[in-house]
């Protein structure tokens, strides 16, 4: 008898610090929005979520607060997260005519039991029938196409918005893992601080993110890239344009990038010898938005003497992994945090 029969009413969610992605069986990824909510301070009602709310960050009048309810991969503002999840689940369920779905959610590997319960509760209150939790690096590995149920070692480095997760996976379980609160958001802040310190210009995090995506690199590029940036001059408070180049951004992000490289090395050092030999053969897989930083794969490869591959569609690995887990729940139920506890 099959324990789990996969119906058409099941949903996979990547509850990321920067973005929330939702997948529905046979429909693929149906929603990909920034994890931002705009709330009316007086009534407590949601005014906007996702892209619309992100546009409001740093631009709202007093009666509206635009917040990112997830911080470092965990729920920082429980009420706002609950409102956001309710809103998103309602949107998806209405659009695809889904009743009370079962939901698989990707959560950071370092999550505490209290945070686990907070995620479960918000999703149940948002209308789900049942909630399963899966560690993000595990979901990313499944989404990147690694066969996690086999008795061989795989290593995944998932660089998201709030956390970098490194995990060695074998036989459907995480053997060694490290979670670092240095990831995409921290790199954006590095860029903001660098531009302020070196150029006397104040820019916002959204601008910093654009700079990172366009010209950010982990080691010098063959051909230097540059872009024009607009901000507020710190000496006179007036708007000013500057041109910034990839070498400067590499310098701005260097310390944080080094921390990410060190955590990968620390994880490899703790890996059992049998799995280490599998990993040397297969190489390291990078997932998450951070995997798109130019030359990061080359830098990690040169520091570890191992091949490094960027997963296909690195931004979608976790949500794809939640979807694949739902489709093969019988074989993959060992990967679910709460299913393991119930055994």
Ranges where pLDDT stays below 50 over 5 or more residues in a row are 1-7
Provide the gyration radius in Å: 21 Å
Strand arrangement, major sheet: 3-2-1-9-10
Strand percent estimate? 25-35%
CATH topological fold name of the largest domain = Nucleotidyltransferase, domain 5
Mean pLDDT: 90
Q: Termini distance?
A: 17 Å
In the CATH hierarchy, what is the architecture of the largest domain at level 2?
Answer: 2-Layer Sandwich
Q: Percentage of helical residues?
A: 25-40%
Number of E strands = 18
CATH homologous superfamily label of the largest domain: ATPase, nucleotide binding domain
Task: Please work out how many helical segments DSSP would assign.
Answer: 12
Following the backbone from N to C, one meets helices and strands in this order, namely EEEEEHEEEHEHEHEEEHEHEEHHEHEHHH
Query: What is the number of independent domains?
Result: 2
For the record, the CATH class of the largest domain is Alpha Beta
What characteristic shape results from the CA principal axes?
flat
What would you note in describing this structure?
The chain is of the alpha+beta class and 343 residues long. It folds into 2 domains: 10-140 and 317-342, Nucleotidyltransferase, domain 5; 147-310, 2-Layer Sandwich (Nucleotidyltransferase, domain 5). The chain is 40% helix and 27% strand. A 5-stranded mixed β-sheet has the order 3-2-1-9-10, with helices on both faces. Strands 13-12-11-17-18 form a 5-stranded mixed β-sheet, with helices on both faces. The protein has a 3-stranded antiparallel β-sheet with strand order 5-4-6. Strand 9 (102-107), helix 3 (113-125) and strand 10 (130-135) form a beta-alpha-beta unit. It is flat. The model is unreliable at 1-7 (pLDDT under 50).
